[in-house]
Amino acid sequence: MNTLDTRALAERLPAASDGELAALFARRRVSGTANWHDFFDAAEALLAPESVARAVAELPRDVLADLARGSGPERLGLTAPDGTPFAAVRAALGDAAPSRTPESTPAPADDLAAAHAAERAFTTTSAIADVLLIALRTPLARVGTGAVGAADKRRMAAEEIVRDADEADDLVALAEATGLLAAAERTWLVTPAGAAWVRTSSGARWASLATALREALPAGLRTAEGGWIDPALWDDAYPLAEGWAERAARWRRLLRLAGLSTEHGDAEPAWATPLRTGGDADPAPLVALMPHEVDKVFLQNDLTAISPGPLAPELDVRLQSIAARESHAQASTYRFTEASIGTALSSGETAESMLEFLAGLSLTGVPQPLQYLVQRTAERHGLVRVSLEPDSGHTIVSSPDHALLETIAVDQALRALGLIQDGRMLRTRASRESVYWALADAKYPVVALDSDGGSETLDRRRFAPSAPPTDPEKKYAPLIEAMRSAQSGDADAAWLERELDTAVRTKSVLEVDVSLPDGTTRTFLLEATGLGGGRLRGRDRAADVERTLPVKSITGVRPA
């Protein structure tokens, strides 16, 4: 390690504000509990070869080019104030001296490629909406590699949301990158923004998704104007980053999924240009090529609904809360069942609210079989009641239909609840919510009762918790305070003491310049053996004697 560079950085760090230091440490991924005593320790750690190599490998092409030509950013602690890279940085760069990113513009997409990109954008936004609706009911499993769990992939394929497992991973990756899903331990949960997004129009969905994707792109892919560089250049955006080619390919796939690039050749549809150049999303050219949305369906006597085209998102979401969607073609089919209507009732719908919605949605009125199904299910709904016993804290399951209660008591699917017969009711230590949803999933006509005995709607949806705000100053405050406390007013003396202490620990041989009482200076060739009480001890290699020198008289130290 170059000691002159270390000293130069150590003397510069104290002049920075606490906020600037915290930002530097965050960019360099310093641990908040780093074992640093003073700013010399900080400088030494920041310029350690492994630390510098890691920091340099994460730099985008243009920053590397600036570093190589001596005009790199000082904010990373890798250069002198004039932009000259420290010796450790030059060593890490080696022969890698890339030129800055060249000017390049994607080729415009032809009509056919643009039409395919529009279809892809529509398919993607619809599929992500379906994924979010699934995740609102049951969080998506997240395996250790960060991929979607196999069971959820099979469910997406069975519901015709995706064609294969890779597409499921890309859809979830796009939803996560754009803030619609968030990882929470071993699951993905829908964010509040995602729950609102599913109810917006297709054009608004795409504009929001495309803008959020642009904001999520790594810095090396972005331009100063706020857009992104030509995707053809993405492979070279991080020349020293290990595995970058695979990450660049993943970002290109997400760009294509959003309809911002064509499937072959990275050509650019017209609606992508404003976003690439830093402007706002304009969905109009894209929407003109999308399938026309409809706001009416055909309700049929066989308890199905057929949409003659893509149903407007808000209507589709509401209809899916009442009926199970069976096909995902542009003319989608939905089926009403006792289970689907029971689920809607458990979520707060009533027979009246459902029939009123369906009457306004239907081109053919509400068929009598469907009216009968809704009313019969609503009358039966609430036959099983789940309440909380205040004194014991136990959950109580009751019903006027004693035969149904006996069926619940022996239902193997409910064994995990630990239901115990207690007269004409069942008792368990499981929570009221757990019991309610277990019974609802088992298709029992269950209702939750509040403390006053009235029915209460329980919301099963789990949203991703808001990420705690990052505050580097707070994280690094103890470390910075400790270093400032250890700082002395005499930087030269502090640096000399550090050099001598290091020499003693490593048993180094030094050339030590000492100012003598007569005003002259004498140089000793000394093997350092001890430091304490303001004195340096060591063996004089020339005279072969032990010497003790006052540290305050030492004017210079050099490795022999």
Could you give a short description of this structure?
This protein is α+β, with helices and mostly antiparallel strands. It has helices at residues 3-12, 18-27, 39-46, 49-57, 61-68, 87-93, 111-137, 150-158, 165-177, 192-197, 202-216, 244-257, 273-276, 284-287, 313-320, 338-346, 351-361, 368-380, 402-410, 432-441, 472-486, 491-505; strands at 140-141, 181-184, 187-190, 298-299, 304-306, 324-325, 333-335, 384-388, 395-398, 420-422, 425-428, 446-449, 455-456, 509-515, 521-532, 535-540, 545-550, 554-559.
Shape, per Cα inertia axes = elongated
Determine the number of helices (DSSP H or I, runs of at least 4 residues): 22
**Low-pLDDT segments:** none
Write down the domain tally. 5
Biggest pleated sheet:
6 strands, mixed
Strand residue percentage: 5-15%
* Mean of all residue-level pLDDT scores: 90
Main-sheet strand order equals 10-11-9-8-12-13
User: From the alpha-carbon coordinates, what is the Rg to the nearest angstrom?
Assistant: 34 Å
Keywords, separated by commas or semicolons:
6-stranded mixed sheet; 22 helices; alpha+beta; 18 strands; 5 domains
Could you characterize what this model shows?
Helix content is about 40%, strand content about 15%. The chain contains 22 helices and 18 strands. It has helices at about 5-10, 20-25, 40-45, 50-55, 60-70, 85-95, 110-135, 150-160, 165-175, 190-195, 200-215, 245-255, 275, 285, 315-320, 340-345, 350-360, 370-380, 400-410, 430-440, 470-485, 490-505; strands spanning about 140, 180-185, 185-190, 300, 305, 325, 335, 385-390, 395-400, 420, 425-430, 445-450, 455, 510-515, 520-530, 535-540, 545-550, 555-560. It has 5 domains: about 5-95, no CATH class; about 110-285; about 300-380, no CATH class; about 385-455, 2-Layer Sandwich (Translation Initiation Factor Eif1); about 490-560, Roll (SH3 type barrels), CATH 2.30.30. Helix 7 (about 110-135) packs across helix 11 (about 200-215). By secondary structure, the protein is an alpha+beta fold. The longest helix has 27 residues, at about 110-135. It has a 6-stranded mixed β-sheet with strand order 10-11-9-8-12-13, with helices on one face. The chain has a 5-stranded antiparallel β-sheet with strand order 17-16-15-14-18.
